Structures are given as structure tokens and as C-alpha cells.
Amino acid sequence: MTALVAYATYLPKHRLQLSEVASTLGTGSGRGSRVVASFDEDSTTMAVEAAAALLRSYPATPRSIYFATTSPAYLDKTNASAIHAALGLPPEAFAADLAGSARSGMAAWRAAKADGGLAVSADVRVGRPGSSDERTGGDGAVALLFGDPKGAIADVLAERSWSTEILDRWRAPGQLAGEGWEERFGVEHYVPLLKRAAGEMLAEAGLEAVDHMVVVSPNPGVRKQAARLFSGAATSPLGHSGAADFGLGLASMLDRAMPGETILVLSAADGCDAVLLRATENLVRKRQQRTVADQLGGGIDVAYATYLSWRGWLEREPPRRPEPDRPAGPPSARAADWKFSFTGSVCSRCGFTHLPPMRVCKNCGAMDEMEARSLAAATGTVATYTVDRLAYSPSPPLIEAIVDFDGGGRYTLEVADAQPDDLAVGTRVDLSFRRLYTARGVHNYFWKARVLAPERSTPVGGAV
Amino acid sequence: MSKGIRDKVAVVAMGCTRFGEHWSSSAEDLLVDATKELFDSTSVSRDDIEAYWLGTLASGQSGLTLSKALALDYKPVTRVENYCATGSEAFRNACYAVASGAYDRVVAVGVEKLKDSGYSGLLRSDPPGDGTAAELSLTAPAAFSLLDPAYCARYGVDPADMRAAMTHVAWKNHSNGARNPKAQFQSQVTKEKIEAAPKVAGRLGVFDCSGVSDGAAAALIVRAEEAHNYTDRPMYVKGLSLVAGPARGAADPDYDYTTFPEVVRSAQDAYEQAGVTDPRSEISLAEVHDCFTPTELVLMEDMGFAERGQAWKDILDGAFELGGRLPVNTDGGLKSFGHPVGASGLRMLYECWLQFRGQAGERQLDDPHLALTHNLGGRPGSCVSFVSVVGSDRG
Fold this sequence. Notes:
The complex is a heterodimer of chains A (about 475) and B (about 400).
Chain A: E1 3-10, E2 14-17, H1 18-25, E3 33-36, H2 43-57, E4 64-69, H3 80-86, E5 94-99, H4 104-115, E6 118-123, H5 132-136, E7 140-147, E8 154-163, E9 169-170, E10 179-180, H6 183-205, E11 212-216, H7 220-229, E12 234-235, H8 245-254, E13 262-268, E14 271-279, H9 282-286, H10 292-296, E15 300-301, H11 304-311, H12 329-334, H13 336-341, E16 343-347, E17 353-354, E18 370-374, E19 380-388, E20 398-405, E21 410-416, E22 428-439, E23 442-451
Parallel strand pairs in A: 2-15, 4-5, 4-6, 11-12, 11-13, 21-23
Antiparallel strand pairs in A: 1-7, 2-3, 6-7, 8-14, 9-10, 13-14, 16-17, 16-18, 19-20, 19-22, 20-21, 22-23
Chain B: E1 9-16, H1 27-40, E2 51-55, H2 64-69, E3 77-80, H3 86-99, E4 105-113, H4 134-137, H5 140-145, H6 147-155, H7 159-177, H8 191-196, E5 199-201, E6 204-205, E7 214-223, E8 235-244, H9 261-274, H10 279-282, E9 285-287, H11 293-302, H12 311-316, H13 333-337, H14 341-357, E10 370-379, E11 382-391
Parallel strand pairs in B: 2-3, 2-4, 9-10
Antiparallel strand pairs in B: 1-7, 1-8, 4-7, 5-6, 8-11, 10-11
Helix pairs in contact in B: 3-14, 7-11
């Protein structure tokens, strides 16, 4: 018996203004924006962000990771193992993918709940230029941790699922964008299911009404009708986010629910999944610090042409430089702690920090007297920096900084989500797990520096 | 520190191709061209040479690259590679072979054929790796552009003054190259044009970067006491130093990207071997590794040619121009002579050779006696450095 004990979400920083999409394609006037993952983010990296944020505020060693996505970075190779490695979890922790459809997010919830693990769902939602999927999708990730019921932030009062076979949304393997049948066809299929689900959930829990309700679905018509179907119901907070939709919907309710209040989450995807919860006293303390709404605010705009090139719709002239080699299997395996959890070595004799780990101390010469230390959660300061307009990058120019970490250690890192003017000597940064590039089908995952928002930029321990 | 081989060996003949885009010459052609000039200037023939050292970064592998091109008669040929110090490394090892007594006459030759790749800048050929090395992503101009903001921050230099100093380095080296018929770029470039050039990395524009070029250079090295049998004006080796750093700067927050500790150490070592105590007054000319303009600026301080934090001022005051107190890169340097990696170290020695012999044409200095050459391979924080001191007189 386990309970939901912590949650966290990650929304990428970039926003695509729909007015620019409309004016570029000549399709009338678009309003608002959508959340888009950067060129160096994928479902795996965003899952790491959400899970790492959760474990920072709720230190724990999950016994399992269930990773749900409709946009897996790899097939035939488990993506959850990269998340597992980036979080520095012990090998005994089970890590598996639940990939394919929006409903995989619910499967991760069920599996993690069954064995007290971590359900992490993330997606990059791609639509054809000008499509509804492009306009109304959103990229993001959510992590939900199950554990000791004493620590529950919300108790599950009822949980049910209904399965149906319907050709509402589909995508052939290898296709960049999916397709949908006429929107109203799905709406007419899902609405009765949703009504039935809501009624049965309330009946099971002996409730007349709920305090918070969210209805998510890959079908845009269902999302549009949510508030009309159920008075006051919210829908997918950042548009449809694939396998992350269920969890992000729930998280947006956990962001605001008060102890004792009830939350009903309905997901209409190849059937219907329904979860009814009641928030506990613990939620007040364990609410994520930056809510989904906070994370939706701000952001930086990406030009539509740049976004199209990120997603592979627009092939642009690369710099006259060779493309990088793919990372090799054996060196990557040997260096897994370094590459995936930014683990260096600290000299036991003199305390000098080596990034990457070294056997011989650069400071005192001691040999094989090192201790491993992960700096994945460290913050640091830019010693110097540059903007490389010649280098190969999936999205030039490449911005790179020499980072000195609080408490020791220096490494040269690319800077994520940055504009050339964002950096100065002394800029404060933390780390973000990213996909540097993909070469011959191999993704090069590693860490990048990320400019810190002012509130987190105070040096720790005065070691600047 | 090396005990050195001061005045034990001498250069008695040299050859150097024009550097630049040799679309119609292969690396083998360039090796033939450089050594042909060398042999044409002396009575020594290929068969009289007892051993060869070939420096090339990536234009061939093994001694066969040279022995095949020159159809050598079963001679020992050693191929060396040490990043951008490759040509100097071929020279250093050849000198030691003669100093050891193993050989009386050897040739060091360096070559690079960069323009066949179709890419901009230098290419790397790294062993299979985990994809995390910064060297894989950051290009050379970007790595050296790190010096600019760091130097400004450390010494409180106005970025506009720093830009002016970088521009001055490019302007000076282009002015010198304009007086050199073998340079890749033989035209004066205005400061306005230098500063308006498209940016490559950080504040470095195209004119802050050395020329990507093809070329070869060669030196005939003999025992010093026999040097006059070959030429009336030998060039004597006073000191040779090579340092490969522990790459500490790339890992140590105490390193501030305003100096190359490897250069400081190799310069000290070479000065000591050569008996140089005050480089600023004793050195007649210096050929240094101006791969990018801020590199030359920092090198002036690391070599002891300028006080810390002052090189930018000395540069703007003209201290290192042809008529200045210590002319630097009189042949145009990497900037305008070009930088075919394996050949560059020997090209620098070629300029010293010409200057000592009074054959430097329009850029001839007044009676030079002691010269320095310097190569840097790698990048700030992680590099190799070579410094030689050569002289026109045997001490």
C-alpha cells in the first residue's frame, strides 16, 4: 500500500507565439503561445528535470522508475535507464519505459503506485506546420512519487478505467507528426464516457461534487468542452502534452488544492481513466515551489523558423564544419557516472575536485586516492565565456562557458536556453541535463550550464 | 628543465614554400618543394642526410609520408605530432639527434595540407569517446576568444581598448605579411576592415584568426663545429624547450584565462638554456604563435616582453612593430603568413634564418643576433608550448 508523496513538473523555457505561426503561414490571426522544448531537450531530458526537481525537494531513493512518453528518444533501448543514471539511483532500482500513447502516463501512475516508485512522464508534441497539434500541443514533464502513506500529499479515494478501441488519434512509427479523425467523432465518443466516469467516481466516494476537476484528452474538442461539460473543470494546463497530460493536469490541481479538498482527474484517451483524490495536510508543505502556472509564465520566445528547424521541418545550411562523431558505447559506459550524473572525483588527500574524474590529482599528485562526487545539483559562476559561431551545433551559435562550481571544480560547458547577451564573467548558473546532438542515431546526453534566475543566484558558502 | 644543447648544433640550410591555398599541390608536392629549396641552397644531397624528422598533424601518417615523397634510400624517418607545436617538435628532436652524436646531418621538415577538407578551420581526429569533452564542441577561435573577457575582467581593461589592441595585432601582422612574398595574405588591411569583419567567436572576427593554409618548411641541422663547412652564416641553436601541461587550467578555478602557464615555463626553460636574462633587451625578434589576436597579446606577457596587464598598452604603443623595441612576427606570423600546422614552427625558424642572413627584404631588421620562436598547441587551460632561442653567433 503506497500513496502519492511528492510531485514536480518541468516546463521548458521556450514559447512559440501563435501569431507568428499564423502570419508566417498566412492562416489568419493566432492568439497566445505554446510551450516548446528546446532543440537540446527531449522526453528523456525533460523527465530528468522533473524527477530531479522532485528529489531535490523530497530526498528519496525510488525503488523504481516508470517512464511514460509518446516521443521516446530510443526504441529497443530503455530510455528510463538514462533517467535512472542521471538521477544517480542505485542499480537495484527498476527502470522501464511505457511508451506509445497518452495513456502510457496512466500506466506509469498505476505501476509506480503498485510498488512505491517514481512515475515520470514527458513529451515533445510535434504537429505539422499549421496543424491543430502544433498550435494546441505543449511540451513538458511531470514526476509523481509514491511512498509511505504516512507521507501522503493526497489520498486516492477512487480510481477506475474504461478501455475502448477508437481511431481518434494515431501515428505510424517513424512519423514526425500524428493524425486525428474528425474532432467531433472523438468528442461524441468520449463525452458519454467522461460523464459516466465522473458519476461513478462520485458515487463510489459518496460525494455530491468535487472541489477541483481537470479533464485532459488528446482530442482538442474534448478539451474545449471540458468546462461546459463539468462546471468549473479545467483542462490540460499547457495544451495536450501526450503522456504527461494526465500528470500535468493533476499537478496543476495539487498546486492549488487545500487540505481536505477533493480533486477529480479525468483523461479521455483510448477510453477513460479517472482518479479521485483528497488532499492531505502534508500537501501544504510539499507543494512544488514553482507551480505549473508559475512555470507557464515568463519564458523566452523562439522564432517560428528556428522552431521548425528544431523539429526537423526546415533543413537549414549548417556551418562549414564536420558533424560530430557519435558517442561510442564502451567509453560512454565506462564514464556513465560522469556523463549522466556529472560525477567527478575529489582528492581524499587535498580536496581538489576533478571534472571529469581523474585518478591522479592535478593539485597534489596523489594517485588513486579519490572519492566520487556528483555535482549535478551544484551551482556555479562563469569564469569566462564565448559565443562560437563556427562550431557545429543543431541550433547555432553555440554558447559556452567556463564554470567554477561552488565548493570546487571547473568544467567547460555549453549554455542551455541562452542568448549571446545573457552571459558575463560572474554570471551564476546551475546544470541542466540535455541532448547535445544526435549523430548516426546516437543521442549525446550530457549536462549544460543554465543561467540562474536572480532569486537562486546567491552563491552558496561564499565560495565564488 | 633541460640542460640544453646551447651552441652544439646549427641550421645550415632551409627551405619554405609559399603558404596559402595550394589547390594544385599535394602534401607530397609541398614536401618536395620545401626540401628542394633547401637542397638547392647547399652542396649536401638527399643521400648525405642520415636521418629525417617529419612533422605533420594530419596530412599523413608515419615516416613513409616523407620517405615515399622524396624516394629516400632506406633512411630513418620519424614522424612526430604535438598539436600546433608539431613542426617545432620535429626540429627539436632532430637537433637532439645531432647533439647526441648519433648523426652529423639531419633534416627536419614539416608539412600540412589543410585546404583539402572543405571545412573551415582545423579538423580534429579524436579516438572514440563519451561525447563530453569540451574540445569536441568548442572550435579553436572560440577557445582562444575566452581570453578576451577574462583579460578585461582581470585587469579592468575597457573592452574597447582590448578590441583596439587585438585589432592592432592583426593590423601589424598584416602589415608585415604585406612585405613577405611567401605569406598567404600579402595585403595591408585597415583597422576599420578588421573590426567590421564577420564575427567567428566571441569578439573575434575573421581578421583575428590565423590563415588556414597549406605549406611546408625544412631545416638542415649539423654539428655546430662543422657548420661553417656548409655555410658562411649558420644559425645556432641556443635553447629548446617543450612543455606539455597537466591541463590544470581547464579544471582549476584558480586559473583565470589571462596567461598560459605552459608558455611561462617553456620560456623560462629556453631562456635559461640560452643564457638569456633580460629577454626584452636581448632578443632581436620573436616569432610567436599568434593563432588569434588575443593569443599574441597574452604571449607578450608570458614571454616577459611586457608587464602583466600592460601588453595591450605596449601593443598600442607600437612596441612590437617592425620599428618597435622588440619586433614580433616580422614575417606576418600565423595571422598573415598562414598556419599549415606541421610547417609553422619551421616557418618561424625560416624567418630568423633570413633575418640573420640579411635576406628578409623589405622587413629586414637592423643587425639581429638573437631570435625566439614559439608554438602553442591546444587551448587555454590545456596546451603544449614550445620555445626556441636561436642566434647568429656561436657563443
